[in-house]
Amino acid sequence: MSRRPAPEVAEVLDQLAAPADRMILAVGRHTLPLTNLDKPLWPAARGPLTKRDLLRYLARVSPHLLPHLAGRPVFVTRYPNGVTGERFYQKVWDDPPPFVRTVAIWSADRGGPRDYLLVANLATLLWLGQQAALELHVWFSRVSPRPDGRRLGTEYARSAEDLEASRLNYPDFLVVDLDSYDYSGREPAGGEPELNRRGFARVREVAFEVRRVAEALGLAAFVKTSGRTGLHCYIPIVRRYTFDEVRAMAETMGQFLAAIRPRDITLDWAVRARAGRVFFDFHQNVRGKSLAAAYSPRRHPLGTVSMPLTWSALPQAYPTDFTIRTVPDLLDEGGDPWAGILHAKEDLETALGAVAGAGADPA
């Protein structure tokens, strides 16, 4: 049964139902100017998807999306003229609206701090939608203390050394990005593999292998579609280890899987060497790197979404099943498969002990 939207969300949806191409949107006690609401952002979708469709989507999924963004620096990919036009990344913003929270973080390139966005409320989420920020990329670490960050530093902007000792250098997740390099044969010369069922079936198999290894080490694993050709595996961990240490553990996991399934899995950085296999990308386990957030739209022509799944749903899932048209109803009916993911954290020390006990080098 579909749930009734929260009052703030219902109010936004009522306003977006008006036919005007521009308006001043009331979001709780905040106001937000909206323009070009009927501009197609995914023109090739089955019925073009417009900025209005994007804003309606963000409002409807906000009760599930915002918890996955809470306390985490966010940057975005903007598509001012839709997914067929030019795109650019944006990490910092000049003079955002007063309802937008930021966190100052030391930048080695700048030799000083820069302000990063924290998406803490519905108004900020809709403001990003107005900016045609279609893809939301979120850090794997966060400034929030609960449940395991109180002992970690809270100085992010003063120096590189302080940032290294802070909560932002201790991730909540070990992440694995699984990408298919099974080519459909329709790609342009030198192009990346396009989504195809044979390739995605192989990615599914590898994701289940990641889950098996994680569980053997006493760790829980969660999975979501990337919204493109692959899957993202997230393993929630207690904030005890730095990004460097977590990346080493992820690499060890990948090396183990590539050794037992060399025809299916590769860690090779050379694209040509990946052909016909699944690329096990552990390199995202770096402070400041990111993957598309759970429920973030993607640039696929159909308006796909990076969709969290249960493991029981994965065998039947395909990325184009999950779009900005379909996902809100799925969430209304079944809820968020990743709700409470941070409560599933385990201590990576247990896994390192298991590796050592098996005779491997924990480093």
Keywords:
16 strands, alpha+beta, globular, 8 helices, 363 residues, six-stranded antiparallel sheet
Give an overview in words:
The chain is an alpha+beta fold. The chain is 27% helix and 20% strand. It has helices at 7-16, 51-69, 122-130, 160-164, 197-216, 243-260, 327-334, 348-357, and strands at 23-27, 30-34, 40-42, 49-50, 73-78, 88-90, 101-107, 112-118, 133-138, 173-180, 222-225, 231-236, 265-266, 278-281, 291-292, 308-309. Strands 5, 6, 7, 8, 9 and 15 form a six-stranded antiparallel β-sheet that branches. Helix 1 (7-16) packs antiparallel against helix 2 (51-69) and helix 2 crosses helix 3 (122-130).
Structural class call reads alpha+beta
The run of helices and strands is HEEEEHEEEEHEHEHEEHEEEEHH
Distinct helical segment count = 8
Helix content: 25-40%
| Distance N to C terminus | 49 Å
Radius of gyration over alpha carbons? 21 Å
Write the SSE topology.
Layout: H1 7-16, E1 23-27, E2 30-34, E3 40-42, E4 49-50, H2 51-69, E5 73-78, E6 88-90, E7 101-107, E8 112-118, H3 122-130, E9 133-138, H4 160-164, E10 173-180, H5 197-216, E11 222-225, E12 231-236, H6 243-260, E13 265-266, E14 278-281, E15 291-292, E16 308-309, H7 327-334, H8 348-357
Parallel strand pairs: 13-14
Antiparallel strand pairs: 1-2, 3-4, 5-6, 5-8, 5-9, 7-8, 9-15, 10-12, 10-14, 11-12, 11-16
Provide a quick synopsis of the model:
The protein is α+β, with helices and mostly antiparallel strands and 363 residues long. The protein contains 8 helices and 16 strands.
